[in-house]
Structures are given as C-alpha cells and as structure tokens.
Amino acid sequence: MPDRGGGPSGPRMRVGRPSRRARTLLMTLGVLAVLAMAFIMFAGFWTDWLWFRSVKYSTVFTTTLWTKIGLFAVFGLLMAGAVGLNIWLAYRLRPPLSAMSMEQQSLDRYRMSVAPYKKWLLFGIAALVGMIAGASAAGQWKTWLMYVNGVPFGQKDPQFHLDVSFYTFDLPWYRFLLGFGFAAVVLSVIAAVVVHYLYGGLRVTSPGARATAAATGHLSVLLGLFVTLKAIAYWLDRYGLAVKSSDFKAADNWTGLRYVDANAYLPAKTILVAIAAICAALFFATLWRRTWQLPVIGFGLMVLSAILIGGLYPAIVQKFQVQPNEQAKESPYVEKNIKATRDAYGIDQADVKDYPGVPQTEDKTKLREAANTTASVRLLDPNIVSPAFQQLQQVKGYYAFPSTLAVDRYSGQDTVIGLRELNIGGIPKNNWINDHFKYTHGYGVVAAKGTTVKDGAPDFTQSDLPSKGMFGTDFEQRIYYGEQTKQYSIVGGPQKELDYSDDKGEKETSYQGDSGVNLDNPVNRAAYALAFSEPQILYSGAIGDGSRILYHRTPKERVEAVAPWLTIDGAPYPAVVEGRIKWIVDAYTTTNGYPYASRTTLGQSTADSLTNSQRAVVAQENQVNYIRNSVKATVDAYDGTVNLYQWDTQDPVLKTWMKAFPGTVKPKSDISKPLMDHLRYPQDLFKVQRELLTRYHVTDPQTFLSGSEAWAVPDDPTTKAGTAVPPYYLSMKMPGQKEKDQVFSLTTTFTPNERDNLSAFMAVNADPGTPDYGKIRILKLPTSKPVDGPKQVQSKFQSEPKIAESIRLLRGGDSEVEYGNLLAVPLDGGMLYVEPVYVRSSGLKYPLLRKVLVTYGNQTAFEDSLEKALNVVFGAEAPTVPTVPTTPVTPPGEGTTTPPTSTDPTVKTALDDAKKAIDAAEKARQAGDWAAFGKAQDDIKAALQRAIDAEAKLTAPQPGG
C-alpha cells in the first residue's frame, strides 16, 4: 500500500542544463527586472512622499501609509496563518494508508508530484491568500481610523438607544471583521477539503466510509466556526436594520426600521441567532460523536428557519397587518425617519412660513421703493458673461476664463469675478519646453459689478493686464494654481518663464515661491521621469539648480490629496484676500451610517443645468445620509499653500478625523476677518438640502405618507436641457429676516410635483458675518390661489405679443438671444421675477445685455434697463437722491434771502454735513444698502433744515435795529 508522504521513486530522467554563460545572463536579467520593478514601486512612493512634504502635510502621508501597512500585515498574517494552519492540519490528519481503489491510484500520481514541494506549496498558497487579504484590509484604512478615533454624537437612535457613533464608526468595522472571518473560514474549508481529498481523508468513489474520523472532526470545527459567525451576523443584522435602505413609496432611498422590520424582522433575527448558536454547538460536538447526522439536521433546520422566520413571516405581516392600514402602522416609524433625516442634513431648523403670493399693498410708490430696498437684483449672469470677459479681457490667446464665473461681494456690492488662467491650448507653438517651462501661469483678476452694466457689457471694477482697479495693483497677480491648470510645470531653474505681455513686449520671470518639489538631485529627477513617463526630465539642460516641479495644481486636487477624508464642493471660487489671490474651497464630512436618515446620491442631488459642462458635481456615485460643511479650505494661487479651517465646531465626524490626523485642521479662530468676508454658504450643500426639503419640509407623518405636499425642483426655464434650475446668489432681504439690511443669500424655487406653478421659495443666509448665517427660510405659497412658477413666467415672457415681437427683432439677421438667470424675489406678499436678456450679434463674439424682463402680479415689462422695467411694472418712479442746493435758500414764509455764507460756522457745518450725507447716500445706493440709503436721506433733510434755520437767524431783524 503506498504511503502518504513519499516521493517518486525509480530512475530520474536527465535534463540538459543551460551553459554557465546562459545561466549568468538569465540571472543578470532577472536581477535587473527585479531592480526595475523595485524602482517603479519606489518612484511612486517617493514622489508621493516628496509632494506631501512640499505642502507640509507629511503627517497625512505617514499616518495613512503606516495604517495601511499595519492592516496589511495584521490581516495578511491572520489570513495566511488561518489557511496555512488548516492545510498543515489536514496533512497531519491524513490516514497512514489509503484504500485500494482506482480513485486512490489516480491520486497517487498527484501525491507523488506534490511531495517534493510540500513546504513550498504551503508557504506559497498561504502567502498568496495573505497578500490578497492584506491588500483588501489595507483598503479599509478609513474604517479603522474612524473606529479607533470615533467621537460620540451625543444622540441616540430611537430603536436600540445606542449613540449614533456606533452606527457610523463601530458597525462598519465590525462588519469588516465579520466579512474577513467568513473569508478566512471559507478559504480554510476549501483548502482543508482539497488536502483531505488528495491524501485520502475524503473519498468519493472508494469503498468504505466517505470521510475519516479525523477529517470529519476537522471540517466540523470549521463549519461550526462558519455557523458561529453566521450567528454573530444575525445579531449585527438587528442593528443593521436602523441603517438599512428599502423601497418605500413614501420616500426614495428610505432608511431605518418600518413596522415590518420592528415587528417581524427584528424578532426573527433574534430567534435565528439562537438557532445558529445551537447549530454551531452541534458541529463542535462532532469532535466527540464523530457523526454528521445531528449537525446536518441542525444546519437544515437553520436554513429552513431562515426561509420561514426571516422571509415568509415578515411577508405575511406586511401583507395582512401593514397593507390594510398602512398609514396608522407606519406613522411612528415615518416620524422617526423625518426627524433623523432633518437632523442629518441640517434642515431641522428650516423656518417654513405661509406666504400669500399676491401683493398686499396697493400704493405703487411704496411698492416701487420696496423693489429697490428688498434686493440688489444681479443683472450680470456669471453663467453667460464669460465670453465677454474672454473677449474684452483675455488679452492673449494663452489666457482663458472659466465658462462659469464666481459671484462674491466686495465693499457691499455683488461682484462677478474671474481669474485670467493659463490656457495650454492657446500657446502659439506646443512643445515640451513651451508647455512645461515657458508658459507656466496665468495673470490677473477681472471683476465687474453684478447689478449694473456699461453699454450692455460688464462694468469692470478690476481689469487690464497687469490687473488694476478696486483691488489696486499691489497684490500677487500670478496664478500658478487654478481650476484650468492641470499640466505640470517646472519652474525656478535656468529656463525663464513668460510672465505677461504688454505694449512694450514680453516680460519674463522666475518663480520665487517655495512650492513644488526640488529637482536638484538625480534620484528625484529619475523618479519624476518615471512617474510622468517623460525621460527628458532626467537629462534636460532646462532643469538645473533651483528647478522645482509643480503638479496637483487644481484647488480641488490639492484639498482632496491633503484631506482624503473630505468630500469637496464642485465650485471652488477665487477671492483677493490680504494681498493674495486665494481659492476658497468648501469641503464636507459625510457618512452613510446615520440611523433612520434617508440616503441621497450626491452626484444626482448636486446636478443642475450648469453641471453638464461648466462645473463639476460632487462624488457622482457617493451615497450618504449625513453631511456637514465642516471645513473651509483655501489654496494660494501663487504658492499653492493649502489651509484647512474647522468651520462646524460641533461636527463629530470632523472631530474624529481631527483625532486621526492631529494638526491638519486649523481652528475656526484662525480665519482672518478679510477671509471671513468672502466665505459663503456652499451651493452643493444647498442643493442637497433643497432636494431633501422637497419631501422633508413636511413634519406630519400622515401628510408625508400621502405625498400631497411633495414638491419638486423646477427645470431651468432658460435652457431646453430639462435639467434642474441652479440656485442663485444675490443680496436680498427675506420677510421676517432679523437683519434690517439686505443679506448675501442663496435662493431657489419649488414647484408642486408634476405641475409648473410656484409652491415655495427658499433662501439661506449665505453671509458668515451675520448672526443668522445658515438660516434656511422657506415661504410656502397657497395651493388655492396658484402663483406662476419659473417655467410659466418664462412662457408668458415669450408669448406676450409685444415682447415676442421685440425678441424677434433682436434676433434679426444672425443675432442670437440668450436668457440670463431668472431671479425670483419675494416682495410685499407677491413674487417679483427679473430676467436679463442678452443679444449676441453675428459680428460680436460675446453677448451684450440689451433688455430686462420683469413681472410682478399681472404686470410685465420688457425694457432697456432694470430701472425702466420696474417703473413700468409698478407705474411709479424710483426715489431720487437729493442734491445740495446751489441757489439761495428760501426759508418757509420768507422772501428771497442772501445765500448762506461760509463765514457762519453753523451754516458751514450744516452744509458740510449735508454733503457728507449725500455722498453716503450715493455709496449706499450703489452698494444696494437701502437701509443706509434711507438713513442718509434723513440726515440730508436734517442738515439742510439746520442750514435754513441758521440762515433765517442771520437775516432776521436785530433788536434795536
């Protein structure tokens, strides 16, 4: 009988051996191949390390790296040990003799061929599965860091009364451990079965028992471990119900327990835990009983119970208890979902108020004045005027502006702003030196007033090259880091860069910042030559002392790299702050494990009519059910410095990451006042919140379930794409707003489902300098008296005979008409709609603002300016600013007197005060600060009255005269 451990016997065939020279050559090639692979791996690691060190976030790199290495080593060794141990055990438990059968004779050949390599096979298989498992575990570095650094939320779920942190930080790690345990047991079972079969412990066709006692005991223990893990899985599934998504007609992506979960699935899972534990004990008992009968019966009962208790019973409960009386049964669970969802998305404090939708005042003069004081209507559409910036301010073909400009505020004025970035496609001649050494940066800021135009074109407040205007010229205008700057550049070395061109010719410069990675030494050059697949980096004479390579140059890339645990807003925007151009980047902390809160897909929620080509969406497939704008980040446009500032000081997710990466996020108190003046409420968070508020503005479960109050985000009426209207920034004053003045706000509208009339208007205070920053206000319009929504207003604009004829004339020849942002403003109970109309003539490459559409109530106007259109709609003129009188002052009841002279101090002081008040009124009017404008008017009247009174005293008859 053949033994189980022997090797092949008999004479060996002689195989010709290669010559020594061939062996040496093969060995040399092998060593070189290994060295090449090692350097390729080293290059990626080394360039990453150099980049993180250059941006002063090396701790992010080291913490992430050591976490991945630790997880790889621990779980790789555990998996290798588990599989290797079971292979070794199966071999040790092999029977000393095998049965005489054709099956065993066939296996003898495999046993003999494996025998000389047993140890190598053992270590090879263990190492392979260990590396795969280790790599998988390394990918869980975020889960591990959140688990070990988790901070309590201070809120408990309504079902199990556990802190929310259990679901967001702990449960994902437990599930990973459980999945790893299942994988280890399954792989061990497969390995043990193969070895037992190979060495005769398991038989298929051989006479006698199908399995030896040793093989039975070994496999029973492994199966017992599998069933034990299943019992643990059933137990964790109980808590998983709180974060489980399900189809529910009341809401998409419903999360949390419903009636059937709490009353059927939950007890079923508890029962299955007990059944699985008993079944596992039966498997372990085979160590003594040496029979499969009881474990197999137990396993069969467990499977049957899972089908009946875990599947059939909940279906019966749903069919016969829930469906006949769904609203009553589901209401308590819907209420929990509403509360959790509103908390998780920060919409729990949204102020919803009824709004009549029709004007409440008949005084046309007051309405006309209110139209000026309620909002600074932005006529310059940042989504349309980029070609005007491009044509009027591009200067050179190798510069470009983004297709969507940013809206900010400077000196109280809504401002449209863009940077003149480098356009690599506009370089006169593309080659490696030009693309990466000579043309390295953009230059200058261009800004224009948002509320006025000049001859239809932007009214620039900062322009030209070099840039000059409201920001002055004494600030760093070079833009080495920007949204369009996606190629690498090598700067600071012997090759000079083109700075900018003017009437006197091209100006050259050499980068003086400390950004980027030094290319002085050959190791760095070789690593980057490999990393960028560009061998010229290794030997080019254009690289020398002081050369630095700049890459990861878009603001989004840089923030994502230094804070990989953040989700980045799709619309970074520039601001001139303290003599520097800084990109401001909003960043979010998110989780998918907030109990009971419904999920949303960020990419879908943040898409609108501008995201197809003009700007990015957030994390297209990233599903979350909790979000906070917890970090405000800045990226310096010249040296690429990244600063992260804690914005939401209460966010437990951010606190957890700050524990994991100490020192990477600066405190909120470090935000300077000039920077604070340019922060704003982020668009993507607003869009996520408005998407949720279409359903979750309702807090009554019965109404929520009926869906009668559900809203929709309307399609953009100015395009034909059928995509959502984007939210708009403008300075305005909402009804019930605490601030007396206009506040920089972000606004949107809602319509009822499947209808086009207006159902609500939403605005959020977007100015961090005000106490109500982040306050969401919703004006809910009545359903009994429909008010026109954006699409209906746009249709009326285009169907009005006179307006339609005017538009037809504007389209004369080859001209194109483009509709700007349709802005809605609540005004005295009604809704004021304003839309700028641009015309792009055949001979002009950019659009000019030619008309303004305005509607209020039943009145519509189509005029050359906003002022004229408002005057037509309200049938009244706007209030005018009084001027200092230049004719002699005539006191009431008196004849003409001599003019006041500067010799009288009282008259002189009063007129000086009047002049100052007039200047203040004009500034307030330009800034749209109508509260200050009204105060200045009162000051003018008071000063003039003092002058009149003083002059009257001078001209009055004196006693004894």
Care to describe what's here?
- The structure is a single chain.
- The chain is of the alpha+beta class and 961 residues long.
- Helices cover 44% and strands 18% of the residues.
- It contains 26 helices and 35 strands.
- Strands 3, 4, 26, 27, 28, 29 and 30 form a 7-stranded mixed beta sheet that branches. Strands 6-7-10-11-12 form a 5-stranded antiparallel beta sheet, with helices on one face. Strands 19, 20, 21, 24 and 25 form a 5-stranded antiparallel beta sheet that branches.
- Helix 1 packs across helix 14, helix 5 packs across helix 6 and helix 5 crosses helix 18.
- The longest helix is centred in the N-terminal third of the chain and has 35 residues.
- The N terminus and C terminus are likely disordered.
Arithmetic mean of pLDDT: 85
The coarse overall form would be globular
What's the number of helices? 26
- Find the structural class using helix and strand composition: alpha+beta
Strand tally is 35
Secondary structure: elements and pairs:
Blueprint: H1 20-54, H2 58-92, H3 102-114, H4 118-138, H5 141-149, H6 164-198, H7 213-240, E1 245-248, E2 251-255, H8 259-289, H9 293-322, H10 326-344, E3 351-354, H11 364-374, E4 375-376, H12 386-393, E5 399-400, E6 406-410, E7 413-419, E8 421-422, H13 432-438, E9 442-443, E10 445-454, E11 457-463, E12 468-469, E13 478-479, E14 489-491, E15 497-502, E16 505-509, E17 517-518, H14 522-531, H15 536-539, E18 548-550, H16 555-562, E19 567-568, E20 573-577, E21 580-591, E22 600-601, H17 602-605, E23 623-624, E24 626-636, E25 642-646, H18 652-660, H19 673-676, H20 683-696, H21 701-706, E26 711-712, E27 728-732, E28 743-752, E29 760-765, E30 776-780, H22 790-799, H23 801-810, E31 816-819, E32 823-827, E33 830-840, E34 848-856, E35 859-863, H24 866-874, H25 905-927, H26 930-955
Parallel strand pairs: 3-30
Antiparallel strand pairs: 1-2, 4-27, 5-8, 6-7, 7-10, 9-13, 10-11, 11-12, 14-18, 15-16, 17-18, 19-21, 20-21, 21-24, 22-23, 24-25, 26-28, 27-28, 28-29, 29-30, 31-33, 32-33, 33-34, 34-35
Helix pairs in contact: 1-2, 1-14, 2-4, 2-6, 5-6, 5-18, 6-7, 7-8, 8-9, 25-26
